[in-house]
Amino acid sequence: METILDKIIAKKSETIEALYKRKDELKTIVQSNEKRSLLNKMKQADVLSVIAEFKRASPSKGDINVEKDPTEQAKMYELYGADAISVLTDTPFFKGSYEDLAKVREAVNLPILCKDFIVDKIQIDFAKAYGADLVLLIAAALEDEKLHELYTHATKLGLEVLLEVHNEEELDRALKTDAPLIGVNNRNLKTFEVTLETTEKLAAKIKESGRYMVSESGISTFEDILKVTSCGANAVLVGETFMKATDLESKIKEMKVSLRAEIK
Ligand SMILES: O=P(O)(O)OC[C@@H](O)[C@@H](O)c1c[nH]c2ccccc12
User: Fold this and answer.
1) What is the distance in A from the centroid of ligand 1 to the CA of 199?
2) How do the domains of the chain map onto residue ranges?
3) pLDDT tens digits, residue range 245-256?
4) Which of 84, 214, 229, 259 has its CA 20 to 30 A from that of 22?
């Protein structure tokens, strides 16, 4: 059966073809060499790190907030204490773009994650050119060889990688790389089912391996934060809750819990 992940990936071939046509653009963009490391921040942090996402829409939720302006939202995220910003750049399913990424880069000085379904090096080149400091690589979407190739390409360009897994098999594959940042997606990209048990199940192995752990998706309440920090998450990645929040400041601030106190 064709899953939504298959559909997204199939559509990517069109995007990639278009990016190769725009390749010359890359030469004209002046890239800054400023180093903004989420990993270093997480290493030093004794409170939970919060990655706040700019997400207009998604295949599972439809339109989430299509009114919000990336520049303004990014400035609010920074002002209220987010540690990094994730920007969706997929257009067909998430209504994002590299232009959004560039706007967020202009607006803030935080590390920025380019959130996309990366299956080709050219997407990493564009992410870098438009101002990303990190890229997402999704184990479920990549064979081992491709995963290694893209991981190497990103690190060569000076980008950090958030390597996303959803189950133990994917985690084992992720641990064969030396990626220090592992993201556990609580949402199954094939069925859309969301449960924080995913983080709880995989946490021990990630901690044992000495990697840093980001719990992604489906996080909205203080109880959710306690659940993921008590099993060892160093960071959370939050989209919908922040895009819809009426009081964004308190929503972000309530998530900045102490890690020392929570880990048993
Ligand atoms: O809106 P949420 O449930 O807070 O989720 C944010 C983020 O984790 C989610 O957007 C995400 C996680 N992994 C992805 C991979 C591709 C696209 C999107 C995602």
Assistant:
1) 14
2) 4-23+36-262
3) 999 999 999 999
4) 84
The CATH superfamily holding the domain 4-23+36-262 is: Aldolase class I (3.20.20.70)
66-103 residue pLDDT tens = 999 999 999 999 999 999 999 999 999 999 999 999 99
pLDDT digits (tens, 9 = 90+) for 224-240: 999 999 999 999 999 99
Structure-derived torsion over alpha carbons of residues 166, 195, 228, 249, reported in degrees to the nearest 10: 110
Contacts of 129 (CB under 8 A, 6+ apart): 25, 26, 29, 31
DSSP percent split of the chain into helix, strand, coil, nearest 5? 45, 20, 35
d(CA 157, CA 152): 9
Question: How many helices, marked H, and strands, marked E, lie in the chain?
Answer: 13, 10
Question: Is residue 116 within 6 Å of ligand 1 at its C-beta?
Answer: no
Q: Which amino acid is at 240?
A: E
**b/e sequence 52-73, b meaning 16+ C-beta within 10 Å:** bbbbbbbebeeebbeebebeeb
The answer to ipTM > 0.95 is yes
11 is written with which tokens?
């559509």
- Say what the pLDDT of residue 23 is: 95
Measured CA distances, 215 to 48, 107, 135, 161, 180 (Å): 11, 26, 16, 15, 14
